[in-house]
Every structure is written in structure tokens, then in C-alpha cells.
Amino acid sequence: MTRTVYVNGEYLPETEAKVSIFDRGFLMADGVYEVTSVLDGKLIDFAGHAKRLERSLTELDMAAPITTEELLEVHRELVRLNGIEEGMIYLQITRGAPEDRDFAFPDPAKVPSTIVLFTQNKPGLANSPAAEKGLKVISIEDIRWGRRDIKTVQLLYPSMGKMMAKKAGCDDAWMVEDGAVTEGTSNNAYIVKGGKIITRQLSNDILHGITRAAVLKFAEEAQMVVEERPFTIAEAQEADEAFITSASTFVMPVVEIDGKALGAGTPGPVAKRLREIYLDESRKAAV
């Protein structure tokens, strides 16, 4: 089935969708993106994603080609047109397509931003088998640029990290800088020790995860103790359990780090409970 996508104000069959070869997202990675999950045909954490999108655009001095209200309608229409019950919607905004390649930003009054959205149908997203067995991760050096809090399309190194993990027979990589874990290639990282949830504090060093914010809020409401600080791979390997969060994985247990099993080598109770709470509460608040 051919998907219907959204490109610069038009709903089009994916086979007819086109973006200029001069688009700065293609030439310069000069763009930002968001991924919003869909459960039961409704959007999960849409308000948080829209707010972070606005922040990313502001940080890069990039024009917003659409209002939040209009963006919500586009998301809903794509869900309807493509019959998405469980899946994701990918959104990308770039600085547009000037007449030629140049390092200098084009005048936003003359070159409009490019906006693209498409759906990904993922039946069984909430009941992923990976959540039952947990993930295996490796550690790699974090050599990304210094503004990881901006959700840009500069994803080459995280992609390389995913492939390093795959080559090692694992599922993902946790990045390490100055001896401490920053985050996963496409997710925020956590460990649990003595019932305490430990995760790196917000800064320019990590993405300000929308799922992260929701999960920590639910954890505190459930009387769980949360400590926001850096932790090392060695500390993580001695933890009782670990997990990641992201819009596409929700709360996903981690059972092995650099070849060392955590606890019994199976998903721990804190991660499993947080996944249950997140899915239940997010479904209730979905739009």
C-alpha cells in the first residue's frame, strides 16, 4: 500500500513526493525532526513533541512553517489517511532550498522552510517482544557535536553506533564522554540501584527526551526515588537493572552492558512497572 505523505502543505502519494536537491537538510543536515508515536489511532505526548520542536527551531534561528494547531491537524489527517493504529509519525523541518549551495543561511523571507511528514505503520508496537527479553548494549565514545539538546537531523554518528552494536551482536550503544554515560544512540539511558532510578541530568549534553520527562514524572508519582546525575559504565554494570526510554520504544529494559549481565539477566521490576504505567497513562492522555 502506498502511503500518503505531507510535503509543504500538500498530501501526496509517497511515490510523487519530492524535495529539491538544493534543500539544506540534504546538503547541510540543516534541519530538525520529531517522532511521535501512535497508539490506538491516537497521538502520544504530542504537546511535548510540539514544544520541543519549537525550541529546536528557535535554537537554530529557523522559521516555523506551521502552527502547533495546524501541525496537530496534519498529524491526525495522516493517521486517518494511512489507517495507523500503532506506529509513528516522522516530522522534519529544514531551512529550505535556496537556488544554490552556500554555507550562509538563506533569507527566510525569500526561502521558505521545507516541512515533511510521513507515517510508519508498526503493529504490535506496544507489545514488543524486545520488552520481554530486554536489550544488550555496548559502550562507545561520544564524539558528537556539543548541542545534543537540539533534535537535529545530524544522525550519522548515532547510526554508526547502532551498526557498531549490531556488529557486536547487540541491540544498541550507550555513548560515553569524560568517563560518564551521556545517552543511547536514539534514547535516554537509566540504571536502577537499591530501588533508586539514576539518569543523567538535563543539559546541552543530552536530548531532552519527551518520554524521559513523562516517565520521570510517573516514577515520582509512584513514590519511586529519582536521582539525576552522571553514571559510569562500571557503575551501570553493577546496577540491579537498567533501561532506556524513547518515543518509539517507550520504556525498554536493558539486560546486558558490554557483555556483563545485569542481575539475573532478565528485565527488572522497575523497568517493567514503568513501562506499564507509561503505556497506561499515555493512552489515557493521547490525542
Task: Describe the protein in words.
The model has no long low-confidence stretch (mean pLDDT 97). The protein is built from eight helices and 15 strands. It has 287 residues and is of the alpha+beta class. Strands 7, 8, 9, 10, 11, 12, 13, 14 and 15 form a nine-stranded mixed β-sheet that branches. The chain has a six-stranded antiparallel β-sheet with strand order 2-1-6-5-3-4.
Order of helices and strands: EEHEEHHEEHEHEEEEHEHEEEH
Average pLDDT, all residues: 97
Approximate shape: globular
Percent strand: 25-35%
The biggest sheet amounts to:
9 strands, mixed
Number of helices: 8
Number of strand elements: 15
Spans of at least 5 consecutive residues with low confidence: none
Nearest-angstrom radius of gyration? 19 Å
Features:
287 residues; alpha+beta; 6-stranded antiparallel β-sheet; 15 strands; 29% strand; globular
Task: Give the secondary structure arrangement, pairings included.
Layout lengths: L3 E4 L2 E4 L10 H5 L2 E9 L2 E2 L2 H14 L8 H15 L3 E9 L19 E8 L8 H4 L1 E7 L14 H12 L4 E6 L2 E5 L3 E6 L2 E4 L10 H12 L3 E4 L4 H5 L3 E6 L3 E8 L2 E2 L7 H17 L2
Parallel strand pairs: 7-8, 7-14, 11-12
Antiparallel strand pairs: 1-2, 1-6, 3-4, 3-5, 5-6, 8-9, 10-11, 10-13, 13-14, 14-15
Helix pairs in contact: 6-8
Quick synopsis:
The chain has 287 residues and is α+β, with helices and mostly antiparallel strands. It has helices at 24-28, 46-59, 68-82, 130-133, 156-167, 210-221, 233-237, 269-285, and strands at residues 4-7, 10-13, 31-39, 42-43, 86-94, 114-121, 135-141, 172-177, 180-184, 188-193, 196-199, 225-228, 241-246, 250-257, 260-261. The two termini are 25 Å apart.
